[in-house]
Amino acid sequence: VSGSPSARRRYLDLTISQMSSEYLRALSRYTRVLEQRNSLLKRLQRDRLAPTASAVGEQLAFWDEELAAFGATVVAHRLVMLERLTELVRDEFSRLTGGQRLDLTYLPSLEIGRESTSGPREERFEWARAVAHRAFMRAFAERRGEELRRGVSVVGPHRDDLAFLAEGVDLGSYGSRGQQRLAVLALKLAETRLMTERAGEPPVLLLDDVLSELDAEHRMLLEAAATNVGAQLLVTGVDAGGWTGSVLERLPGAQLVDGQVGLEGELPPG
Fold this sequence. Notes:
3-stranded antiparallel β-sheet, mainly alpha
């Protein structure tokens, strides 16, 4: 939530790639085209050609179209996925916080506007891809001088970001550590539900020693939410005594004591 934009982009890439092979292919191709286009921009920068020079337009035309095509696909997948993920994360965050609202806001480097369209997911995707493609081509024309001066591609999904807004407040800048942690937990629970919808089967949900970092109230709320998400659940912690009386007591458990793993009751308490 509070780290660099590259970490949030990586999260989007990893999450969507698990649900869409088309996204993975487009992202891979986009990355290769971006490297080629940046290499060309650096060469043009060294040659000190004017943005309006015919040689500039001729050499960049192919790479502009390739980057716009694959980049628009990447952006469209992100926008459509985040529409549904935001709906799910609102529900999960509300449960964890007693009614507060969390929104995920995509921050594109392209000027694609905030308008949206209704209809099936496939139609919304094609609409978003067309809008993003036009924005790419418009940005190439408007920012050609800046790209030649800097020698890099200045717009595209490789420069986008994702914001977490709790009741309209940017948690990355103004959220407390507790709010940020609850936002991440809500996001992972929402992601689990989204993957179940898309794949038809739930993923495995691992909560690695997160309960010890929450107060009793939020621990109880998380336990209830995690056990109701419909996924195989693995929970780790260093103090199993803290789970007494919780729904986690219904789960089969194992202990690690002095380097040995055994079912509960097989090893002495450590």
